[in-house]
Amino acid sequence: MRKTPNAELVAYVEQEILPRYAAFDAAHREDHARTVIAQSLNLAQIINDSPQYVNEDGSKMRIDIDMAYAIAAYHDTGLTEGRDTHHSVSARIIREDKKLRQWFTPEQIEIMADAAEDHRASSKSAPRTIYGRIVAEADRDIDPIKIIRRTMQFGFAHYPHLDKEKYYERTLEHLHEKYAEGGYLKLWIPESPNGERLRKLREIIRDESLLRQIFEQIYVNMV
């Protein structure tokens, strides 16, 4: 089984899909898409190499590298129509992109669309397929400083009227709501590096003096 995606598919994504991210907010630009792609391919390889991942019939689970790559590349393209429904719009974009039929069957395209729709961290239900779990996990690129910076970038883009203290309160509220113990973020692949990274982020969230120090350092470079 190949460990790298189809070169023609990669060329199409590089030319036609990744440039779309330039129009999105700073937390969802092309660098984010590339990170999710890299993480997805890494997780796909972990699953392909691990004997513990099996299908319902007991056979070894095999992840299609091309599918994992394409899902990651398209997962946030729906931001063209806003954040609230971007996961559903991303799924629609996958279904409607006729070029994808060059590399994927209709059944594969449907799985890919479902995975993109299921990737959102705030979803109350688990992704329907292993592909959804992969992209959802890859999207949780839990580098503590990067997460704090992305939270602040989103706040800057969507709440420009807030003063510094209100802006800090908004950042703190979001970090607790999503990443702290009891937050809505869920990790779907146990072997993912995100487990240890999430533990470190939670330590920072609990230490409000340290969090405030990090906030101040990032804030200076953003205003």
What does this structure look like?
This protein has 223 residues and is mainly α. It folds into two domains: 7-139, Hypothetical protein af1432, CATH 1.10.3210.10; 144-220. The chain has helices at 7-17, 30-49, 65-74, 86-96, 106-118, 130-139, 144-158, 164-178, 194-206, 208-220. The chain starts with 6 loop residues before the first helix and ends with a helix. The model has no long low-confidence stretch (mean pLDDT 92).
Secondary structure elements and pairings:
Layout: H1 7-17, H2 30-49, H3 65-74, H4 86-96, H5 106-118, H6 130-139, H7 144-158, H8 164-178, H9 194-206, H10 208-220
Give structural attributes.
single chain, mainly alpha, Hypothetical protein af1432
Helix content: 55-70%
Would you tell me the structural class of the helices and strands? mainly alpha
Count every beta strand, where a strand is a DSSP E run of 2 or more residues: 0
CATH class identity of the largest domain: Mainly Alpha
Q: Globular, elongated, flat, extended or rod-shaped: what is the shape?
A: globular
Give Rg in angstroms: 18 Å
Number of domains: 2
User: Which sheet architecture does the biggest sheet show?
Assistant: none
State the CATH superfamily name of the largest domain. Answer: Hypothetical protein af1432
The N- and C-terminal alpha carbons lie at a distance of: 48 Å
| Percent strand | under 5%
CATH topology of the largest domain: Hypothetical protein af1432
Mean pLDDT: 92
Unreliable runs, pLDDT <50, ≥5 residues? none
What is the N-to-C order of secondary-structure elements (H for helix, E for strand)? HHHHHHHHHH
Total number of helices? 10
CATH architecture of the largest domain: Orthogonal Bundle
